[in-house]
Fold this protein.
Amino acid sequence: MLAGQDHHAATRFGTPSPVIQIRGLTKQFSVRNRPVSIFNSLDCTIDRGSFVSVIGPSGCGKSTLLRLVSGLERPSGGSILFNGQAVSGPPHGMIYVFQQYAKSIFPWRTVIQNIAFGLKANTHLTRSETRERCREYLHLVGLDGYADHYPAQISGGMQQRVAIARALVCEPDVLLMDEPFSAVDAMTRALLQDLLLRIWTTIPVTILFVTHDVDEAVFLSERVISLGRAPSGISDDIAIGLPAPRDQIATRADERFIALRQRLFASIFQQEQQPAPEGS
Amino acid sequence: MRAALSRWPGYLLVILLLVAWEIGSAQEWIDPVSLPRVSRIFATWWQAVVGGAMAKALAPSLFRIFSGFGLAVLVGVPLGLLMGTINFCYRLLEPLTEFVRPIPSSAYIPVAILFLGIGDEMKVFVIFAACIFPVLLNTYGGVRAIDPVLIDTGRTFGVSRLTALLQIVLPASLPSVLTGMRISLGLALIVAVVAEMISGNSGIGYFILNNQRIFRVPEMFAGIFTLGLLGFLLNLIFLRAESYLLRWRADAE
């Protein structure tokens, strides 16, 4: 039990308990009047407090999976439970962070006004409490001094930090992140990864993280779910037992990191090389 | 200020044309009865301004312009938001809009006279009819062009439909709405003058036509000059308001 603690995030809050349960999930799209199957009875459980990444070859449906979990999209069959309740629309306590942060943050609102956006709908705070809470999260993402800037006046990496703060300020149980760092440069990405890990260890939040970057998935997560070509579902589900705290230099040089990374990369690369199945 | 300075060749051209007009008219190279000297027109204009005649002519026109334009915004923006957000409303009203829109609003004047007479109601209605389409089209066009990510952002934060409309849809479509309003404001001025020339005995349109009829050509030009000035000022005020409302845009300074 004690020895296993480092390996399983859920244990950082005691006994593991499921926060998201996916049961028999099926999703079909209609492409030029032909049904295309993305998932065919997918099952998966995400433990409270864990950091789980979803990877897979292009077109495997990893973003679709996240959208289904978030309630932004409806499944064709099966069910998704969040805190034991069936998801039938975007539920309270679960917030989606979009890949296109520049399109997701409100350009007509200042940084602090952006962060305050979801608070009214998700909490019952007074005006001064709202301001206080926003300042707190502004500080958490390292944007003190930028409260009254408009998004157009700050960099892309800072904009994504605003989007993260805007989601976290609502104190959600689950943060769903869809390739959140794919549009920033490599150095900014490393800094944002460190920031996210720091936040995750500070706040009792579950993070479900979709990325196409295998290194990023292994570096950040406690568990990596690798999806196969649609509609094959989960092809690999690996616990990443790397020691915490993760370090951009030391962790990435760790033999275990390299082995895990190689294994996952090889499996995805192999699938990418195969010719696309008919209809996709 | 720098923008004003960089435009000096344009201003110089205006001055040169006015000087050419002044000299041409004084030397009778052009007919001084039809095109009186600029200095005379300006003196007449100044007299009409200080004597109150210009204000008397302008006041009813401004009332009509702002009533018609204001009504068009009050109806066009909510209707445009409705058409932009609810697909059924769009499919219901879009064909009608596309059919009615190409008809020049001055063509409504005879019909409007039949139903509303020749008073202010008719003029306000015709201005409204001219103004509504640019506002409506630009509003629903702006709403329909909103990125789905922005709408999904509202959904994931669980805000109500009304909050999403007021805090996401409206500000996101505001640049487009304001463009429509600015086009409409220009149209309002044109249609007001046309309507006043066709019927009635007040307003700046009537002032211009009447002075032409009684051969008071400098007064006629003074009226036209006033219109130019009015259009310029309205546009300037509007642009100022616009750049304030859209101060968050990257290109706004």
